[in-house]
Amino acid sequence: MTRNDLNLVPVPEETRTYKPISTNLIFQTIDKLADKNNLYIKQELFDVKQKGQMQRMRFIFDTDHPKFAFEVAIMNSYNKTISLRVGSGSSAAICWNLQVMAPFKIQEKHTGEVREDLLEFLTDSFKIQQEQIQNAQTLWSALDYVTLSKKEISQLAGRMFFEEKLIGADQAMILRRELEKPSFNYDYNPESLNSLYQHTTFAIQNEHPTTFLQTQQGVQSFFVDTYEEITNNKLILV
């Protein structure tokens, strides 16, 4: 769908206990903040379910950094099936898979001051976008330093699938394919923890709208924790 397609989906009426967030309001807010912060949208990705009643919107902004773009991801619904969910972070500029998401995000029912809270969250996100880009570079460098054998990579992938349930069967197949023959030239250490991270974030980019932010945050936490365990000699892979 395009912006025009999404804006044509009827917005439900506001009631005393329900305040819908229209896609038009989201687009206007994103555009105003981008203009205010001298950013322009390089790519928009929309994933909708139930004829537009559930929406995942990803706005990716160009930055001066050679590896990373700034991203805002929004989950919204008109049928009250999911609360408003918003996250911001950095994307790998080469493939647009979300890399690092800020530790804070909004998850709120469509009630009360939800529109004001959305504006406040997005405003703050744009203010710290340079910090998020730097965090992504720091994580990239750290994970790239940890070299793994094929067996160790397989063990970590198995943990994500069987123990943590961060990836499903289809995503595991994508991950295996990307490890064997990457779709992009990431300019990384191909035998590193970073390599596994890049291909995992690629594998989950088509996660269902209702779980996308949660899964991405879970994957990020898994790799940060794994890095700390390995470097502190608390995790032994055999």
Write the layout of secondary structure elements.
Layout: H1 3-8, H2 23-36, E1 41-49, E2 54-61, E3 68-77, E4 84-92, E5 98-101, E6 106-108, H3 114-127, H4 129-145, H5 150-163, H6 169-180, H7 193-203, H8 212-231
Antiparallel strand pairs: 1-2, 2-3, 3-4, 4-5, 4-6
Helix pairs in contact: 2-3, 4-7, 6-7, 7-8
Describe this protein's structure:
The protein has 238 residues and is an alpha+beta fold. The chain has 2 domains: 3-128, no CATH class; 138-231, no CATH class. Helices cover 45% and strands 18% of the residues. The protein is built from 8 helices and 6 strands; from the N terminus they run ααββββββαααααα. Strands 1, 2, 3, 4, 5 and 6 form a 6-stranded antiparallel beta sheet that branches. A hairpin with a 4-residue loop joins strand 1 and strand 2. The protein is globular and about 55 Å long.
Keywords:
238 residues; 2 domains; alpha+beta; six-stranded antiparallel sheet
Q: How many helices does DSSP assign?
A: 8
Q: SS-based structural class?
A: alpha+beta
Ranges with pLDDT <50 over ≥5 residues? none
What average pLDDT do the residues reach? 92
Summarize the structure.
By secondary structure, the chain is of the alpha+beta class. It is built from 8 helices and 6 strands; from the N terminus they run H-H-E-E-E-E-E-E-H-H-H-H-H-H. The chain starts with a helix and ends in a 7-residue tail after the last helix.
